[in-house]
Amino acid sequence: MKLLIAFSPLIVLIFFQEQISCFYLAKSASSGYYQDGDFVIGGLFSLRMTLGGHLKPKILFKDKTDTLDVVHVDLTRHYQHILAIVFAIENINKDPHILFNMSLGFYLFNVNFIETKAMESSMGLLSGESPPIPNYTCRPEKTDKLVAVIGGISTSISTQISRVLSLYNIPQISYAPFDQSLGTSVQLQSPYQFPVHNVALYQGIIQLLLYFTWVWVGLVVPDDMRGELFLRDITEEMTNHGLCVAFAEKVTEFSATKSVNLKHFMERVTLTGVIVAFGDTHDFLISVYLSIYYAPFGNIWITTSDWYITLPIEQNRVYRHFGGGLLFSFHMDEILGFKDFLRSVQPRKYPHDIFIQDVWSILFECPYFDKDGVRELSQCEPNGSLSTRPLHAWDMNTSPSSYKVHAAVYAIAQALHEELSLRVEGDSLDKSVLRPPLPWKLHPFLQNSQLGRSSNEKNVVNKEVSATKLDIFNYQSLQSGTKAQVKVGEFVFESHSVQHLSLNDKLITWGEHHNQIWINVSSVLKISIRINRGISVFLKLWYFCPMKILWELFWSPWPLVYLPFQP
Hints:
Elements: H1 2-28, E1 33-35, E2 39-45, E3 48-51, E4 58-61, E5 64-67, E6 71-74, H2 79-94, E7 104-110, H3 115-127, H4 140-143, E8 146-150, H5 155-165, E9 172-173, H6 198-211, E10 216-222, H7 225-240, E11 244-251, E12 260-261, H8 262-270, E13 274-277, H9 285-294, E14 300-303, H10 307-310, H11 315-322, E15 326-330, H12 338-344, H13 356-363, E16 368-371, E17 374-377, H14 400-421, H15 443-447, H16 457-461, E18 468-477, E19 483-493, E20 499-503, E21 516-520, H17 524-528, H18 534-544, H19 546-554, E22 560-564
Parallel strand pairs: 2-7, 2-8, 4-12, 8-9, 10-11, 10-13, 13-14, 14-15
Antiparallel strand pairs: 1-7, 3-6, 4-5, 15-18, 16-17, 18-19, 19-20, 21-22
Helix pairs in contact: 2-14, 3-5, 18-19
Membrane topology: Multi-pass membrane protein
Domain Receptor ligand binding region: 84-421
Keywords: Glycoprotein, Membrane, Receptor, Signal, Transmembrane, Transmembrane helix
């Protein structure tokens, strides 16, 4: 008894210390967006990129070293990813048969593009607060309901999330582009990913180049495994079809400290009229700024995402450089009712959404102020609609990432339904029986879904697809002055022997500032004396593709090649 009395103050002290620690975190933390439910899905999203301080790239130009100012990039269009999970959960909760009359909730964080913040928020999902205390549960009413997590937007962010969640065997579904290296870069379990049929993408780009007889093409890819694989595969395909790789440039992510040689970058872009860029916004932040502020007009960009539209740069400047660009996007069926849902979204409809105030303030250019710790918007349109916002700030069409997030919610709900079904006895719907399952119990059901993991990469990537359809969009300035992505064609791929490119030339506009001239190759030597670097271009063509040049000169029915004309 004495021993108990002697130690009792210590026990009490430890107890209060734990309570105080969690209370202190709750006061200082940047909390997420939480909605309660019988089961909770975590979400880690990225709404902002920051380039500044030690992250600023050093630009080498004219023997001088300049540094870009701090750049804050608010990706308001990424807020659609959060709305996709909210929309899916609202619909699931309306159907009593999916989860046996039980409800789904969510716990959402914005990790921006910061890896340490991704790890911190992952631990926040486990402890119930952020910043968290590892291995402590401060809010068991939240954490005990967690069944799976959706996130993140890139391989690097997904990896850091997985390093935390895999320790506790919690399912993670990444909505980043499929990356074969994700499984090897994570110590324990790799996240579930949405498989893609990249062969169709390569073939679609190749057929487009052949359609316009663009034989001298530059390639720009992110400096990671995804970029490396794309470069390897498309270079092989281009060679097989007699197309020439003018240059292959690997660019670092926006957060990299590696220097960018602007002079070298400009020379390559200037000498190449057509450029294929494979990647997303976070891959090309630096490259877009370099192209817009230092490179000349006149290039035609073929891309796999609309990264050039999303940046908060003066849009007329963006259009002068990227107007007329062509975008390949995997075809997706429209999510039924999602556009109507987006039109109905307003801050007053979701008062607990901690992200909507910032997004609304940017989209509608109205400030907000803090009143008793609560943010309130001022001077905003009372009935403002997302459907009225310009393309670079908001897109009413479902983005590929939003489509994945929506599908991920339904995959988790289906896994929950199947797991709960095993515990339902007859018509019994006793909620004590249907309490949240341990997260790891969902793995067998998720593995039977359409999702894949890098450990199963061969089965995922090489899975036969009956037909893959890609939509082709053209970045245009409409007569009303607004900028839009207009569908101008599609590419359907079934096999290497069965594929079809459909393109409506009349719908394509190449942009008002494209300095294009179709030059007969037989006249290149006569004209090149008066063209800056013209001889260099011709010699490179001859060096890399001599047979293609001879074919163009003597046998081609229309001996044309696209070159930038700069007298």
